[in-house]
Amino acid sequence: MWWLITTLIVGLIAGALARLLVPGRDPMGCFMTAILGIVGSFVGGGIAYLLHWQPRGAGDERYFHPGGLLLSVVGAIIVLLIWRMMRKRT
Length: 90
Description:
Blueprint: H1 2-21, H2 30-50, H3 66-89
């Protein structure tokens, strides 16, 4: 149960940081910002996998790695930019 709460909090932080770092208007609430951060975490995890980065203690759900938050923000920025491009086309 704690992993779900932690995931939502880290997702909200990563999504909010991504929205602050990328200028522009994005009308979305707290829930969608958290979803943006969670999806960004998956993208950041994919980047770490492709670069063969595996922090010590990986797989332990109680483990927190500051680099994971950084990659979550980078992934959220990528997802936000893709979302903006898709929104402009429709």
